[in-house]
Amino acid sequence: MSKKMHKNGFVEGAAIAYAAIVITKLMGALYNIPFYSIIGDKGGIIYSYAYSIYTLFLDISTAGIPIAISIVISEYNSLGKYRSKEKAYSLGLFTVVGISLAAFLFLQLCSRQIGGYFLKDMTEGVTIDEIAHAVRAVSYCLLIVPFLSMKRGYLQGHKFLAPPSHSQVIEQFVRIVFVLCGSYIAIYILKAGVTAGVCIALIGAAVGALVAQIYLVRTHRANRSEFSVHGGTEEKAEPTKVILKNIFSHCATLILVSITMSVYNLVDLKMLLLGLHNLAYDDEVAQLVSSIASTWIPKICMIISALSIGLTSSIAPFIAENYAKRDWKAMNLKINQAIGTVMAVSIPLGVGMIMFAEPVYRLFYGENLYGGNILQLAIVVNILGSMTTVISMSMQSMNRGKSVCLFTILGVIINTALDLPLIYLFDAIGIPAYLGASAASIVGQLVTMFLLLGSLRKSIGFRCRPMISIFLRTAPAAVVMTVVVALVKYLWPVTQGRGLLLLVQFAVYGLVGAAVYLPLTYRSKVLSDVFGEKLVESIREKIGF
Questions:
Q1: How many whole angstroms separate alpha carbon 379 and alpha carbon 370?
Q2: For the segment 315-346, what is each residue's pLDDT rounded down to a tens digit?
Q3: Rg for the chain (alpha carbons), in Å?
Q4: Which of 155, 166, 189, 291 could be bridged to 48 by S-S, CB 3.0 to 4.6 A?
Q5: Whether 228 contacts 84, CB under 8 Å
Q6: φ, ψ for residue 53 (rounded to 5)?
Q7: What digits encode the pLDDT tens for the residues 388-409?
Q8: What is the phi/psi pair of residue 60, to 5°?
Q9: Strand, coil or helix: what is 217?
Q10: Confidence tier at 309 by pLDDT (50, 70, 90)
Q11: Dihedral Cα 147, 151, 152, 155, nearest 10 deg
């Protein structure tokens, strides 16, 4: 029997969402260690290109609509419009069905053209047919995953954040088991080849989503009384046109921004391939570097960006409710709290990963000439991107989508325009050329973030002072932590292997860093400001700190 659900407050919701995201992303990151060993570099390239395309079409199918549904449901709920709330969910679900089916058919019919887009005149490395097979396999995920996103959006709109978070863990666990077992059996037992193993791995996303969807449906049914459909302030639901306009006013920008980012990622991948190809890199090397930068490094960096994903899923309904009530003070507090949380967690974590970039990459994927360098700049990109994501979602939740869209596109244009010039410039001055793409991303993220903050200040009188204060108190603690960890690293150098000893060393370095950073941020009140004094004191008493 499913457990009784209860609604979650902002801090509690963010904590639940973050815990689930961290668990799933850690699982997702760690499982790549055996998975990459199973499929190898060639399989990694095929997987990378197919998954990049899938991400774009998943964004087309779902980006914006589930979050928009959570915002609209939260608004209708706060106003007592229960019938309109249920109608909004039905209309959103119907829309997702049509878009997902169209996306599935497109990938099935155009898989070879997609392979040609990536490889064009490359004659070495993976083939167009291998990429086409993988694209057709991953397209089946579009028939299941979007509906899971809709169900999560529905529950989040009612401020039930625990079940969607639990479903993420379930989805990831089932997916990992299926991917590892399926790819290993296909490649090493059935001798079906690397491409077949990659195809089975890509289908794993659909299997995991299906199991998670079953869990959410059963939980929803067992708690049906918690979802009001009668009473309230309206006798009948608002007209379809009005509800659709409300949904699309929220999700149009979300969809455009998400699609813009996914298209940019594809273009960025292509620019990196083109730039390295023009600089006379071997085709196999260019393909490997581009797959590392576009897929495998981001999987490690998800440990950092997990926090912003958890915060955006929990902050949207609360910001929408505060905006509907014109409670500017509460909005300022929540946005500063969210950005401060990203800083307090991501900065020390990112600094530690930059210090150990080469062994971190080696732990996941083995020895590689390019991985460590790419990872260092990618961490900076992800920290900036995490803050930008929280600010962007906050603005979209209060109907400032046009500004978000404009600033995001402007940042992407700057990023794209700088890709090739910086790749060529880095090569000319003796810096690895492939780092030019990451440098362009940093510039683009900075432009977008500052423009968003400026717009937020104008629209609701947003004050950056609390956020700046958190940063100024976090930075010294991170510096002291870095010095202490560097000393421990000097006394106990990182092993050159890839086994248990390396994991033990990371655990020791991490514990030393936490033992320095947490007391400093506790004394400077950073932890109380971002997590709430009540929660921090409760944890402190439990651990006897």
A1: 15
A2: 666 666 677 677 777 777 778 877 888 888 88
A3: 23
A4: 291
A5: no
A6: -65, -45
A7: 888 887 787 777 777 888 888 8
A8: -60, -40
A9: helix
A10: low
A11: 170
